[in-house]
Each structure stands twice: as structure tokens, then as C-alpha cells.
Design goal:
The complex is a heterodimer. The N and C termini of chain A lie far apart (37 Å). By secondary structure, chain A is mainly beta. Chain A has strands spanning 5-7, 10-13, 19-24, 31-37, 44-50, 53-56, 65-68, 75-79, 88-95, 105-106, 110-114. By secondary structure, chain B is mainly beta. Classes of the chains: A mainly beta, B mainly beta. Chains A and B meet through strand 4, strand 5, strand 9 and strand 10 of A and strand 6, strand 10 and strand 11 of B.
Amino acid sequence: GAGVSQTPSNKVTEKGKYVELRCDPISGHTALYWYRQSLGQGPEFLIYFQGTGAADDSGLPNDRFFAVRPEGSVSTLKIQRTERGDSAVYLCASSSLGALIEEQFFGPGTRLTVL
Amino acid sequence: AQSVTQLGSHVSVSEGALVLLRCNYSSSVPPYLFWYVQYPNQGLQLLLKYTSAATLVKGINGFEAEFKKSETSFHLTKPSAHMSDAAEYFCAVSDLNAGNMLTFGGGTRLMVKP
């Protein structure tokens, strides 16, 4: 079956613009995670959904970042008033039950560049 | 709070040589530990995970890791490196107090010389 997909694969925008990044999890996976990976670093947690609700959004850096998952499947990460420091690869992952020992399956990421 | 330290951002080995990638963690509760591999332009792929069953964990592609509580370590090894092992490797930890998020180390880029 299909893995986690993310669109677009690359996004270039100008400082101050609004962007949306999309994640399609593996069908049937109830848990969905967003991470951000800056150049030369490991991924950093942003937000976790269990179903439609955000169970943990403690990793969102500020109120310019917001994510939704209205039907418990596809998720969109929204960034307002983008800044150059937002440039990174944004990774999405999903897992079947959201339990700790369940494997998180990662998508290929969206590379965001803010000019 | 949890943290993961990977010693050595770059490791170079010859084909056929032993691979050793180091990972030390900090966690106030018994941890769940993971190793992920990232090939260029691909997503992270799980190599293996420790969930308190056996301290020596075997993963895919001939990799294994040993959980040592006394050393707070979870080093990744492979007896004989292949060219195809060249990639970025990430160690990660998760625990009950942190919900379901993974805390990753900074990664180690493995280079394999012919």
C-alpha cells in the first residue's frame, strides 16, 4: 500500500507570505505527527494528532504555526507571516494506534525555503 | 525532559569494516529507544526499536543495538559495512511522560569507502 505522502515536495516563498503544507497519512492510521528538520539537525517535534484533535501541540514554536486534521485523515500545517528562520524540511509521520511502541512511518518531507 | 546525544556527526568506515554509531540518552523514566535511517531524498525508515523486552535488539539490514541502562547508551552496530549503508542515522527516544513524540539526536552521517 501507499506510504505517507507530502505535498509539495518543495516550496519556495517570500518572507511574510502564508504557506500550507499537506500530509496524507497511511490509510487507517489514527495518529499523525509533524516534525521540523533544520539543516544538519535531527527532526524536532511540532504537533501530534490522535484522530481529529491535536493531542499535543507543545512543539509549535509560536502562534504563526497552526495545524488541522478536520476529518481525521489528511493534515495541513499552516504557517503565517513566514520568516527566513522557518526554512527547513517539514516531516509528517503516521502510526496505527498512537501507542508509544508503534512505529511512526515518515513521509519524504516538504522542503520549505523562505527568501 | 528527554535528550539524545549522538557522538560524531560524521563516521567513515571501509567496506567490510565494523560500523559503530553511538547514542546516549537522558530520560527520567524507562525509555523507548529507536534508530532511524534516512537515505538522500527519502523519508526516515525505522531500523530497530527497544521497548524493554530484550536488551539486544536486531533490526533490518544486519543492524543491531544494545540497550545498556548503566551507561544510558543504545549504540548501533553492524559487523560488516556495505556501500549501500551510506546514509544519515538518527537515534530517538520516547517515554510515557512525553506523550507520543520522538526526541531525536542530531544524526550521524555514515560514509562507506570502497
